[in-house]
From TrEMBL:
Organism name: Hymenobacter frigidus
SMART domains: Elp3
Originating gene: lipA
Reaction catalysis annotation: [[Fe-S] cluster scaffold protein carrying a second [4Fe-4S](2+) cluster] + N(6)-octanoyl-L-lysyl-[protein] + 2 oxidized [2Fe-2S]-[ferredoxin] + 2 S-adenosyl-L-methionine + 4 H(+) = [[Fe-S] cluster scaffold protein] + N(6)-[(R)-dihydrolipoyl]-L-lysyl-[protein] + 4 Fe(3+) + 2 hydrogen sulfide + 2 5'-deoxyadenosine + 2 L-methionine + 2 reduced [2Fe-2S]-[ferredoxin]
InterPro entries attached to this UniProt entry: Aldolase_TIM, Elp3/MiaA/NifB-like_rSAM, LIAS_N, Lipoyl_synth, rSAM, rSAM_sf
UniProt entry keywords in alphabetical sequence: 4Fe-4S, Cytoplasm, Iron, Iron-sulfur, Metal-binding, S-adenosyl-L-methionine, Transferase
Cofactor binding: number and manner: Binds 2 [4Fe-4S] clusters per subunit. One cluster is coordinated with 3 cysteines and an exchangeable S-adenosyl-L-methionine.
Signal peptide range in chain numbering: none
Protein's cellular compartments: Cytoplasm
Protein known as: Lipoyl synthase
Superkingdom of source: Bacteria
Matching SUPFAM superfamilies: Radical SAM enzymes
Length: 303
């Protein structure tokens, strides 16, 4: 799950040529392996219905806790992404899967699991004219039909300014609509080379203008400065954001971006207070926080 930073013996290197030492992972980032009957039951359902979850594909450190409670975040539209973000563990390539029966399978699995709050997300499907919008909407609609008491959050990727597709994606009746900016503006070229900071802000602004509860997430420890994070908070508030999640970036493999810094729990607590002071209605902030962590609480945030 979490990538360990291994210490190995190296020959002595002159200081001027030595590579900078990687920061050691602190104790507060250690989590228990997923175990228990509830986790096993969810595991069987996910395998039986051939469902993709971002819990697995994204190496989420909270998978044991969330699945142990009988919940999961479902990833629709396959598990191959057309983007190559330098932080993400999801496979990159040319997608081959486009399953029109997927909305039914996801909705039925959510009903079988008796999920009270479901989070839906997807890979980027830039090759599709509608970015997969029809599958997005049908998944929400069918879930609501089969499980009318279930609340839903949709974590929608960058639609690349296809605002017609966005309108379809957000029209299914979900309670929370999320789009992660992921990092501060100055790091976009490094972290999200195929995305644009201003375009993500516009996506949030258009979602809010349509009358929805809006949410976004930022990873910390990629090299951002506090003032840059504060500016991002201000930008998000100015574009109508209600809910923000802040969590520690963890390097999924050695091929991905290194961790520049491990943010302390006290720093996360400070950033939460700062976000609320700047006008955000709800801030979920902590080293192991991910987009869907405690997502059921966000349904009650006033619009």
């Amino acid at each position: 799950m979490l990538t360990a930073i291994e210490m190995i013996d190296l020959p002595v290197i002159q200081p001027e040529t030595a590579a900078p030492a990687r920061p050691r992972k602190p104790d507060w980032l250690r989590v228990k392996l997923p175990v228990g009957e509830e986790y096993a039951a969810v595991r069987r359902l996910v395998d039986e219905h051939k469902l993709h979850t971002i819990c697995e594909s994204g190496n989420c450190p909270n998978m044991g806790e969330c699945w142990g409670a009988g919940t999961a975040t479902f990833m629709i539209l396959g598990n191959i992404c057309t983007r190559s973000c330098s932080f993400c563990a999801v496979a990159t390539g040319r997608p081959t899967e486009y399953d029109l029966d997927e909305p039914r399978r996801v909705a039925e699995a959510i009903k079988l699991m008796k999920v009270k709050h479901a989070v839906l997300t997807s890979v980027n499907r830039d090759e599709l004219k509608d970015r997969g919008a029809s599958v997005w909407r049908e998944t929400v609609v069918l879930t609501k039909q089969l499980s009318p008491e279930t609340t839903i959050e949709t974590l929608i990727p960058d639609v690349k300014a296809n605002w017609d597709a966005l309108d379809v994606m957000i029209s299914g009746g979900q309670e929370v609509i999320s789009h992660n900016v992921e990092t501060v503006g100055s790091l976009y070229r490094l972290v999200r080379p195929q995305a644009r900071y201003d375009r993500s802000l516009e996506q949030i602004r258009r979602t809010k203008a349509a009358g929805h509860r809006t949410k976004s997430g930022i990873m910390l420890g990629l090299g951002e400065k506090p003032d840059e994070l504060y500016q991002a908070m201000d930008d998000l508030v100015a574009n109508g954001l209600d809910i923000l999640t802040l969590g520690q970036y963890l390097q999924p493999t050695k091929r991905h971006l290194d961790v520049a810094e491990f943010i302390t729990p006290d720093q996360f607590a400070h950033y939460k207070e700062e976000g609320l002071r700047r006008g955000l209605k709800y801030v979920e902030s902590g080293p192991l926080v991910r987009s869907s962590y405690h997502a059921e609480r966000h349904v009650n945030v006033p619009i």
